[in-house]
Amino acid sequence: MADDSKPRDLHRLLVDARAVDSFIIDMPPEWERRGLLRRRKGFDEVLQELHFNQGMYGERAGITARDLQELRTAEEQLQQLQELLPRARKLTELLEENEARLDDRIQRMVHGLAAGIDIRAEAMDDHELLGPYERVRRYRSATQLKGARTRKRNRAAATAASDDGSAGERSE
Length: 172
Prior knowledge:
It is built from three helices and no strands. By secondary structure, the chain is mainly α. The chain has one domain (40-171). α2 (65-123) packs across α3. It is elongated. The chain starts with 42 loop residues before the first helix and ends with a helix.
């Protein structure tokens, strides 16, 4: 069955980040966000106050025109990133959902093909067919075998736990 769900707005798949290319940085793997300062309530008023008082008090306060220009530039860059993020997050969500959907489809197809090989070999009494598809059949069975091993291990752990509990009751 074909998947009839299609994106209605194809332009939503376009995230053009070329405008931020001049200042965006790929942080090193060890870089962490922990400890970074984040804006809090009232920050807009702080910016207004800095800009408003610059003419009369800025130089006396040690705030140079260059300081304020760098602040403006950083603020503009942040706004550009914030405009891109919702669309980029949606695109990431779409890509991850469809990656999972397509991988699931592929896995189910391979499982179905492996089951068909087993059924056909049995029905046609053609066990020579099993050899050339050994990896396909083993791949299909791996999840089931792992589940069986996990269930067996869990049963053994539960039995051991109940034996320990009943042994503790006897010793009291």
